[in-house]
Specification:
By secondary structure, this protein is an alpha+beta fold. It has 14 helices and 24 strands. The radius of gyration is 21 Å and the shape is globular.
Length: 433
């Protein structure tokens, strides 16, 4: 059995570990022992070391010592830092873009420049600002806080702030924009528009793409989409692979942009394979582009991988062989449903000490709900500890109807997770955002 290195340690990597281990021996370099990932490493006869996955020398030595043949990375920061480049230099088959390919995610201005060239009608009016003076002038040109502030680099889904929601008034927006400008030397100010937000995610071998079922994410911390933005509090997909407010022509328009973008990025060398997805708005003036991501989303990965009918390891092989098609990458006609469990402080304030909590894992899994651990360590029995201020674990299931899937997850939560923990109780309601 071939050996596959997986780097990254969140809920997204937990579900990837499950599906990779069905066809490969799983190996990983991890900063802490994520229970889901370690379980799959052991189950598949692989190996792990606790070390810094950003340390290229450690990763390179681990690959050589264990004769690893395949590498999959789906973490934005690891991709930006060029860990796929390290694996490629050592001759591994790789799933994920090089640092140059991942630039469409880690540089918002680069992504906007590409879309401006390929589909100018999808661009929302924006300004790439590099000085305080320019920033003040642009913000003063707005009548009120109807603008969006976007940092240039990666922020884990928590950096974009929308006027009237995340900041009130022009002055507050200016202060946040100034802080972004100080960090990276530029900041994007964009018009605030009305519409329905959605993502289109595609698997790709660098040339061919297969669009996955369209997911609906819940990025805000509290019920009714209130509170700060987060990495995602939950996610769902429908049995027909569409969302109620979308038509096939909307998906086709977004897919076409994704294909053309790949062609642009890969015109000289194969810099990009794996997963690419775009965030979009459906507005009364057509589809508008928000941003690109160069890897699986989290929580979206939990939904998409659980909706695959084709074994994921077969999909990986078709990507390596550049033979990916809708014939060899199929999805089930089922709804998927995910809820993330977090600390009560998550996205609001930082905890100084790890949170010790209990969950009845066996009782949850008995109800047909899977647990994917993220920023969590196993202590003993049903006792766990948080590792950072991020999300703790995701609960995912699938069913013929959304209502059935929703009931399964929320019923599994009742009485089986510690009262110290928190989650949104309204995943499944489609809000305007």
């Amino acid at each position: 059995m071939e050996k596959c290195l997986l780097l990254g340690n969140g809920g997204r990597e937990a579900v990837l570990a499950e599906y990779i281990s069905k066809g490969y021996s799983l190996y990983t370099v991890c900063p802490y022992e994520n229970p889901s990932i370690i379980e799959m490493v052991n189950k598949s006869g692989g190996k792990y070391i606790v070390a810094d996955p950003f340390n290229k020398e450690i990763v390179s030595d681990f690959i050589k010592e264990n004769n690893i043949e395949v590498c999959l990375i789906s973490s934005d920061n690891l991709l930006q830092d060029g860990l796929i480049d390290v694996a490629r230099e050592l001759g591994l088959k790789t799933f994920g873009p090089t640092s140059k390919g991942a630039k469409i995610e880690w540089s918002k201005t680069y992504a906007l420049d590409i879309v401006e060239k390929l589909a100018p009608q999808m661009i929302i009016k924006n300004y790439n600002i590099t000085s305080i003076e320019e920033l003040k002038n642009i913000i003063n040109s707005y009548n009120d806080d109807s603008f969006v502030v976007k940092p240039e680099g990666l922020t884990g889904g928590k950096g974009v702030k929308v006027g009237g929601i995340h900041f009130k008034g022009k002055d507050e927006g200016l202060e946040y924009a100034k802080s972004c400008l100080e960090i990276s030397g530029n900041v994007i100010i964009q018009d605030k528009i009305e519409g329905r937000e959605f993502t289109v995610m595609a698997l790709t071998d660098g040339e061919n793409i297969v669009v996955t079922p369209t997911t609906f994410d819940y990025p805000y911390r509290f019920n009714e989409d209130k509170g700060p933005g987060t990495g995602g509090m939950g996610c769902l997909s429908f049995e027909n692979g569409m969302l109620p407010f979308l038509e096939q022509k909307d998906i086709d328009e977004c897919s076409n942009l994704i294909k053309e973008t790949l062609k642009y990025i890969n015109k000289d060398n194969l810099e990009f394979n794996g997963v690419i997805y775009g965030g979009f708005f459906k507005t009364k003036n057509g589809i508008k582009f928000i941003e690109f991501n160069s890897r699986f989303g989290d929580p979206e990965a939990l939904n998409v991988l659980n909706s695959l009918e084709t074994p994921f390891t077969d999909v990986m092989k078709n990507i390596f062989n550049k033979t990916l098609s809708t014939e060899n990458c199929k999805f089930k006609k089922e709804c998927t449903f995910t809820v993330y469990i977090v600390t009560k402080e998550y996205a609001v304030e930082s905890r100084k000490e790890p949170l010790i909590f209990t969950i009845s894992r066996e009782a949850i899994e008995k109800q047909g709900v899977k647990i994917y651990f993220a920023n969590t360590k196993h202590l003993e029995g049903n006792k766990y500890s948080s590792v950072s201020n991020s999300r703790l674990f995701g609960l995912t299931t699938s069913a013929k109807t959304l209502q059935e899937a929703k009931e399964k997850v929320y019923n599994a939560i009742k009485g089986n997770i510690d009262e110290k923990l928190d989650y949104r109780t309204d995943i499944g309601s489609i809000y305007e955002h």
